[in-house]
Amino acid sequence: MIAVFDDYIKDKTLLTEITNDTLFFSTPGIYKYWTGWWNSKPKNLKHRLIQYIWRDNMPVFFEEQVHGFEYWTGIQSAEDPNYYSHLELHYDDDVNYRKQTGKKMFPLYGCVYYPPGLTFTGGDLLIYTEGEENSPEVIKTLPNRLVIFEPGKVVHGVSEVTSGTRKAIAINMWGQEPWSLKNGYIIEE
Fold this sequence. Notes:
The chain is of the alpha+beta class.
């Protein structure tokens, strides 16, 4: 399942806050976790975005029991040597659990949100719904676009950014507490 929604955030205040927040992408690759609005009010802009997507404006119906949300930002750049220009093919899973036990633990669903205001070429989201031996679904990174899919079930990655810098926030919905959360590998906010 892949669902793509353009011009996703309609709340102009939230959209402006995300666009103007200079710290929103300041910690790329740092995994954080929120146990959701049913346990605590949103503490930051990323929590508000999660609530906006998964509670207030979810265009797809889910029946699963939810424990919480793992989230992180990502940056790929053709110009900044501090970042890779692409993202290797992978499944989303609890990496530390897999390394410790040899077993896998996956999120229920995930989404990627692309904020407005960035100029770059390349950086498409590649989702291999029919396996790595077949061509991927190619989803263009467009401003204010939300992509929902099952990142624990399908291989995915990001094609090379050939100019500029691509930024996104990824949010995974977990049905059970990730091993990495209870063992201190993911920061709970």
